[in-house]
Design brief:
By secondary structure, the chain is mainly alpha-helical. It contains 19 helices and no strands. Helix 6 (90-104) packs antiparallel against helix 8, helix 12 (235-249) runs parallel beside helix 18 and helix 15 (275-297) crosses helix 17 (323-349). It is globular. The chain starts with a helix and ends in a 10-residue tail after the last helix.
Length: 420
């Protein structure tokens, strides 16, 4: 009787969740992320190739910059999230982050080919991301009914990555068109200005159409940095954080995946610039259905499955296979992995964190992943400087397999259903 009633209640809940609509606030946040990512990816699509083949930087230096690019958000994520929770001004903090990223685009024409200048501007852009990511994810979480949390994050990530897919395409068209009108430097200056304009439009959309979400004022007394870090005392949060760290240490940055593919297939700069589009198109197509799947079968299970695909991808990139298989390994499998991990992790953690600490809690989890990503990029670049990238890729495949095994033992996936 009890089991039958439970199954019936679950079916009713699932039927209701399929009729729930993704909130307007989430769609607008996704639109802002789309425009911001178009702007950012127009610039970063060729950075790895440019540093390695034009400026002739070492893989170790590129790994440091890539790690810095991905790790810097961790420096601001927790303080920004704390202020957003404490002041109940999540929109303000996220808006400042979007504004900072837009403003950096105007600095690129001034630094030219300076490695230090490029590093500084890319770092400033990442400071903007660190300031906005956790408040934005908290706005998504607080705007969404628990039953469709995975779908809402999937919709946001889908729109976000439509921008990431369009950015390299637009950059290729702009450079192809503007190079005919003058020098390469003028072409890139035009690219920077267009990127700034697109980011500015995104900021306008954010200011006009995104609404803030606040909790009862009495809950502010619960908000402090100590309370946010105190989440690590909760067994589920600590185990999840350790798992995220281990998986992040074994995750190879897209930059090195693409450079490995370019190394093996002898790609030109223009071909390299379009690689990110393949990954992002895969992500866009699968983000929403994978989010729905995570809501139904369990978010942690889907999260781990995404990392299993990366093991397959890394092994293929390290072995002798046909070029078509290499392309699938470098572009399609990571795209599926992103769909299964990015928003899904936030959807898994969000409902478990008290609403008053939602932003700070998500920021702590994001920071753990970002710091692990910094170490991973630095390690991969350093290892490549002393060996063959295919060998290093195989090492990371083994490390990911070990990380998945340990993570599966750490986290109890069957408890995922309590997320609603």
């Amino acid at each position: 009787m009890y089991l039958t009633g439970s199954r019936t209640a679950r079916r009713i809940q699932e039927a209701r969740s399929t009729r729930e609509k993704v909130p307007f606030n989430v769609k607008m946040l996704g639109t802002v992320s789309l425009l911001t990512d178009v702007s950012s990816e127009m610039l970063v699509a060729v950075v790895g190739y440019y540093l390695l083949n034009v400026l002739h930087e070492t893989p170790a230096a590129i790994g440091f910059l890539d790690g810095l690019y991905n790790g810097i958000p961790a420096l601001l994520a927790i303080p920004a999230a704390y202020l957003a929770d404490r002041w109940q001004r999540r929109k303000l903090l996220a808006g400042l982050g979007y504004g900072a990223s837009a403003a950096t685009k105007l600095g690129f024409p001034l630094v030219g080919t300076s490695f230090g200048g490029l590093s500084g501007l890319l770092s400033a852009d990442r400071f903007g991301k660190g300031m906005r990511s956790a408040p934005r994810d908290a706005l998504i979480s607080l705007s969404t009914p628990p039953a469709i949390m995975g779908r809402s994050f999937g919709v946001h990530r889908m729109l976000d990555n439509v921008g990431a897919a369009l950015g390299p395409l637009i950059a290729s068209v702009v450079l192809l068109w503007t190079t005919k009108l003058g020098t390469d430097r003028k072409a890139f200056d035009a690219l920077f200005i267009i990127a700034f304009c697109i980011a500015a439009i995104g900021l306008v959309v954010f200011c006009l159409y995104v609404t803030d979400r606040r909790e009862d004022l009495r809950e502010r007394s619960q908000v402090s940095l100590g309370a946010a870090l105190g989440l690590l005392k909760q067994a589920w949060f600590l185990r999840t954080g350790i798992a995220v760290a281990l998986l992040g240490l074994a995750w190879v940055s897209d930059l090195f995946v693409y450079l490995t593919l370019a190394h093996r297939m002898q790609l030109s700069a223009s071909q390299y610039a379009l690689l990110a589009t393949g990954t992002m198109v895969t992500f866009v197509v699968l983000a929403v259905p994978v989010g729905r799947l995570a809501d139904r079968v369990g978010r942690w299970q889907v999260f781990v499955a995404g990392h299993l695909l990366l093991v397959v991808a890394y092994v293929l990139l390290a072995t002798k296979v046909a070029d078509a298989v290499l392309v699938v390994a470098a572009l399609v499998l990571p795209g599926v992995a992103y769909a299964a991990t990015d928003g899904v992790l936030m959807a898994y953690c969000g409902p478990r964190i008290p609403s008053a600490l939602r932003t700070s809690g998500l920021a702590v989890m994001q920071s753990i992943g970002a710091i692990a990503g910094f170490v991973s990029s630095l390690a991969f670049g350093t290892a490549w400087s002393h060996g063959d990238p295919r060998t290093v890729m195989l090492w990371f495949a083994g490390a990911m397999a070990v990380a998945i095994t340990v993570s599966t033992l750490l986290v109890s996936p069957w408890k995922d259903r309590v997320d609603g």
